[in-house]
Design brief:
The complex is a heterotrimer of chains A (331), B (222) and C (300). Chain A has ten helices and 15 strands. Chain A is of the alpha/beta class. In chain A, the strands form three sheets. Chain A has an eight-stranded parallel β-barrel, surrounded by six helices. A three-stranded antiparallel β-sheet of chain A has the order 8-9-10. A two-stranded antiparallel ribbon of chain A has the order 11-12. Chain A is globular and about 60 Å long. Helix content of chain B is 61%, strand content 13%. Chain B has eleven helices and five strands, in the order αααββββααβαααααα. Chain B has a five-stranded mixed β-sheet with strand order 3-2-1-4-5. In chain B, strand 2 and strand 3 form a beta hairpin. In chain B, helix 8 packs antiparallel against helix 9. Chain C is 33% helix and 22% strand. Chain C is of the alpha/beta class. Classes of the chains: A alpha/beta (331), B alpha+beta (222), C alpha/beta (300). At the A-C interface, helix 4, helix 5, helix 7, strand 10 and strand 11 of A face helix 4, helix 5, helix 6, helix 7 and strand 7 of C. Strand 11 of chain A pairs antiparallel with strand 8 of chain C.
Chain lengths: 331, 222, 300
């Protein structure tokens, strides 16, 4: 399959960020409702129904699509908010919903059959049979691939399934299989899978001890930084742990994913869309990252040399970047 | 990046170092009142957050600011540098804080670089950041808008700044402009020119985006 | 209410072939469990060693009258891993699907849905039941309130929940066991085999927090829900899973069996379990809606 151009899918944590992304050259923006139905359920973030309607109007007027992430797993006995979110996304005129839970997928297929369904990275579909399952059972049109695959594996999956794929181009390096990691609830009692927040801010604390900053999640110390040392998000997978008497970043370093240097390879693999992560980030981040990727993609379309690596250094987690699992050595 | 905001930056730092605390407090209260008119949704959203007091500490100011969230009305007060009693505290340089307020810089980036320090209830800080980031704010604009209800302290501030900040002529003139009623701006050639520049830059960017979008659409059709 | 079933979940740690065989032979001969899950869940690189003794283990268990279920990988990415599952769907054994890939390959055949497939609610349960699931092992993160809903309205679908052993927290592409030993996954030397109970990871201030088991991360503490067996039965749980640890699992199974059958008081059984359950702290927070690493004193 030859892809002529790759779609740039950008985060919108707020209506202002949505406008920033649209104006900055996004082909598509994605957002979520202001509740536990999406995986970025942080205070002050996200959209209510009216804001979504306005956002869709703003984006559509500028030839830009809007996806709505409803990508957490409903609590048993309380599926209503998730079903309502699907209905509201349809009513607001969203171009697709991004879903993860089997039950929500079934509901959307049944209740809003005309609404395009994408499979969230939270569903952790990293192989051809899984993707086929979601295609056959729920008519899923696009899958957001987990950040665990190398470029050749991505190409193989696309060849096997013929599905549209969206891959992460910029954001976090998620070392764990997403949607099935219980580390955060192990420390806080709040589940990212159903409450929509990994390392919820309400359970994060920073304190200065002897010139070092201590980060804690729940009652557990995740890390200690010297002055001037780069910091990562206070998630359990980015903490420092001691094994064999030696302290290290056991799971992942404070480092961000940046695939800007392998856009041509991803295009060659047949990737449909590039996802920029960061609904939790400010619109200044959105503006900078979207503009940089827009330039790089336009250059790629023209056959020019893609923007050199490192231009977004300051925006990445820990201020360092990696191509993550796209390169085999990462494992 | 900071170069883009000399006016509010100098203003804030200038105001805070030069003005007596009561005047500064009146100015802060007036800013909140002004925001109520210019950004009603912001005030509603701030009132809708979890009740908490956030202290904003600028490394380079002799005072700290306290924002009371989660109630009506929202309060912005000025406290002594070493005041306590906050649920959460945010600390950075004035330049950084203004850039944050105006949405020019990403707080997570600052956090990764450790240019922003957070302590206390992190959820409160995240909520405040997210609610502020929903709005397109301009500190200079808010101050300029104050010149109606608070003309006297604002002018006094401008005068004091003029007296004190010798050598920073150009910057002061710019500040002075900001503090005068908006109508006066249109007569100011340099301000007009600046606006034109900005408009052209914005139009060029949008034209570029349109062009590439058209091209991609053509490619898709092909 | 049918008689509660006691099951032995798949061995998550990487034990040598001989140790594995000895373990399962003793289970077959002595442990009062109804069902035994065998097969590799964590890493396909371990499979050759696991399979070296698998046939004899299965034969011995079946001869002892145990139901044997073949567990499959929790994270499937390579075509080879897919093929290995495909080869098994037509076998005699019931499969435990730990990735949606397995459900797809089963094509409607009866199966068990494992705890690595997210079934957190009624809607998801209906989907997997529609695909032929006869039993669902609920994710360990599920609390009692949700569990009551999913299990309580499950009809004839059997519901299983882990009640003993370190609890699985995550699976990954990356091998942390290799990383902790300055190796990479592609050249790991199957280093996870040196730690039969996994590798304990402490916080920088000395709190033992996690257990690294190859690409899997487990809790440090032993999940012990002995005091909650009555609660779980009332909620609709039909199958009670013990996850193999490096301790006397026959004794553990006997204690759980006695409590399930009402032949022993919980308080007394707890005391007896302390004597055999090793040094790892006990935890049960997830079920009580608390941080998973906590211990909540169960109500008598």
């Amino acid at each position: 399959m030859t892809i002529r151009y790759m779609e740039l899918v950008c985060p919108a944590g707020t209506p202002a960020a949505l406008r920033t992304a649209v104006d900055g050259g996004a082909d598509t923006v994605y957002c979520g409702f202001r509740d536990c139905t999406n995986a970025r359920n942080y205070p002050g973030l996200n959209f209510d129904f009216d804001e979504l309607c306005e956002g869709v109007a703003y984006a559509h007027a500028r030839d830009c699509k809007v996806l709505v992430a409803i990508n957490t797993f409903p609590r048993a006995g309380d599926e209503g908010p998730w079903h309502r979110a699907v209905d509201q996304a349809a009513a607001a005129g969203a171009d697709a919903v991004i879903l993860a839970d089997l039950g929500v997928l079934a509901y959307a297929t049944r209740a809003q059959p005309q609404l395009r369904r994408h499979l969230s990275v939270q569903a952790s579909a990293a192989n051809a049979p899984s993707i086929k399952f979601y295609q056959q059972q729920f008519g899923v049109r696009r899958v957001v691939l987990p950040r665990v695959l190398a470029v050749d594996e991505v190409a193989e999956l696309i060849a096997d399934t013929g599905i549209e794929t969206e891959v992460f181009a910029f954001g976090s390096v998620g070392p764990m299989s997403e949607g099935r990691c219980f580390l955060s609830s192990y420390l806080t009692g709040l589940s990212p899978t159903s409450e929509g927040a990994c390392a919820p801010a309400s359970h994060v604390a920073y304190s200065e001890v002897g010139g070092r900053v201590l980060s804690r999640l729940g009652d557990v110390t995740l890390n200690s930084f010297a002055r001037g040392e780069a910091a990562a998000y206070p998630t359990p997978c980015k903490g420092r742990y001691v094994t064999h008497g030696r302290s290290s970043y056991l799971f992942e370093e404070p480092i961000g994913l940046n695939a800007i240097s392998i856009l041509a390879e991803l295009k060659g693999a047949g990737v449909t869309a590039l996802k920029i992560e960061g609904r939790q980030r400010s619109r200044a981040y959105v503006a900078e990252v979207v503009a940089t990727f827009r330039r790089a993609l336009d250059a790629l379309d023209r056959g020019d040399v893609v923007t050199p690596v490192g231009t977004l250094h300051g925006s990445t987690e820990g201020g360092r970047e990696t191509r993550g699992a796209y390169e085999k050595g990462w494992r | 990046m900071h170069a883009q905001s000399p006016q509010p930056l100098a203003l804030l730092r200038g105001a805070a170092t030069v003005l007596p605390r009561p005047v500064l407090a009146a100015l802060a209260a007036a800013i909140v009142r002004g925001l109520k008119k210019s950004h009603p949704k912001l005030l509603r959203n701030l009132a809708g957050l979890e009740p908490a007091v956030v202290h904003v500490v600028a490394f380079d100011l002799p005072y700290r600011f306290a924002i009371t969230l989660g109630r009506e009305p929202i309060a912005l007060t000025v406290l002594a540098r070493d005041a306590t009693g906050a649920d959460a505290e945010v600390a950075a340089s004035v330049a950084t804080l203004v850039d944050l307020l105006e949405g020019r810089i990403d707080s997570d980036t600052l956090f990764f670089r450790r240019d922003l320090r957070i302590s206390g209830n992190t959820a409160v800080v995240v909520g405040l950041r997210n609610v502020l980031d929903r709005e397109e704010l301009s500190l200079a604009g808010e101050l300029a808008a104050l010149c109606g209800p608070l003309a006297r302290p604002a002018q006094r501030l401008a005068r004091r700044l003029e007296q004190l900040a010798d050598g920073a002529g150009a910057r002061l003139a710019a500040m002075h402009r900001t503090l005068h009623p908006p109508g006066a701006d249109s007569q100011d050639l340099s301000a007009e020119l600046e606006r034109c520049h900005e408009e052209i830059a914005a139009l060029t960017a949008r034209l570029g985006a349109l062009e590439s979008r058209l091209k991609r659409r053509a490619d898709k059709v092909a | 209410m049918n008689a509660p079933r006691l099951t032995l979940g798949p061995l998550l740690f990487h034990w040598s072939a001989s140790r594995r065989r000895d373990f399962y032979f003793r289970i077959a001969d002595e442990a009062p469990v109804d069902t035994v899950y065998v097969g590799e869940v964590v890493c396909s690189k371990r499979e050759p060693m696991v399979e070296a003794v698998q046939d004899e283990v299965i034969a011995r268990l079946r001869a002892a009258g145990k139901e044997v279920v073949l567990s499959t990988l929790a994270l499937v990415t390579t075509p080879r891993e897919v093929e290995r599952i495909r080869e098994r769907v037509d076998g005699e054994l019931l499969l435990e699907a730990n990735d949606v890939a397995c459900i797809q390959l089963l094509g409607g055949r009866p199966h068990v849905v494992g705890p690595y497939v997210n079934v957190f609610n009624e809607g998801a349960r209906e989907v997997v039941v529609g695909q032929g699931a006869v039993r669902i092992v609920l994710p360990i993160e599920m609390n009692i309130t949700s569990l009551r809903v999913v299990a309580g309205t499950a009809g004839s679908t059997q519901i299983e929940y882990q009640v003993f052993g370190r609890q699985p927290l995550s699976v990954a592409m990356r091998c942390y066991h290799a990383r902790a030993n300055n190796l990479t996954k592609d050249h790991c030397q199957i280093i996870c085999g040196v730690d039969p109970e996994g590798l304990v990871a402490e916080t920088i201030d000395g709190l033992e927090l996690l257990t690294v088991n190859g690409t899997q991360t487990l809790t440090r503490g032993n999940g012990v829900l002995l005091g909650e067996l009555g609660l779980l039965r009332e909620a609709g749980v039909t199958h009670f899973r013990l996850s193999p640890q490096e301790l006397d699992m026959v004794a553990v199974a006997a204690l759980y069996r006695e409590v399930l059958d009402g032949r022993r008081e919980v308080g007394e059984a707890v005391g007896a379990l302390r004597a055999v359950a090793g040094e790892a702290p006990w935890i049960n927070g997830f079920l009580h809606g608390r941080p998973g690493r906590q211990w909540v004193e169960p109500r008598a």
